[in-house]
Structures are given as C-alpha cells and as structure tokens.
C-alpha cells in the first residue's frame, strides 16, 4: 500500500471522486524529464471533496480501480 497525493478532477459520483496524480520520469532517449498523469478513483464517504482539492489517499491494488481516501 503506497501513499499517493493528487488533485481532485471530478466529483460527479456519489461518495466517489477521480484524483489525478502527476509523476515525473526520466526519458532515456531524449534525456529529459517527462510528466505523466494517472487518474484514480477514490472513495469519499462524507462527500466533501471539491474539484481542485489536494487529496491524500492510500493506493490499494487489490481493489482494482477503487482506492480508499
């Protein structure tokens, strides 16, 4: 289980949000750092997350695409 920090990009679902997580990696061919964005679904029991909020949650691979906040 890995702690992840991201920004809420969608809160249209009931008790769920979509969180975008940015990461940098070094491209070997171009010798530059490249930014990639991954989107995760997270559980929001109280429905208080808004778009643009910075959220901390724990990644859990066994739940598939659903991740606890």
Automatic annotation (TrEMBL):
- Entry keywords, A to Z: Ribonucleoprotein, Ribosomal protein
> Is Acetylation found in the keyword set?
no
Which Gene3D superfamilies does the UniProt entry name for this protein? Nucleic acid-binding proteins (2.40.50.140)
Short name of one Pfam family: Ribosomal_S17
Cellular component GO terms held in the UniProt record: ribonucleoprotein complex; ribosome
Sample GO molecular function, one term? structural constituent of ribosome
SUPFAM superfamilies found in the cross-reference section: Nucleic acid-binding proteins
Question: What domain of life does the native source organism fall in?
Answer: Eukaryota
Q: Which is a GO BP term held by this UniProt record? A: translation
Keyword Ribonucleoprotein in record? yes
Family that this chain belongs to: Belongs to the universal ribosomal protein uS17 family.
Q: What is this protein called?
A: 30S ribosomal protein S17
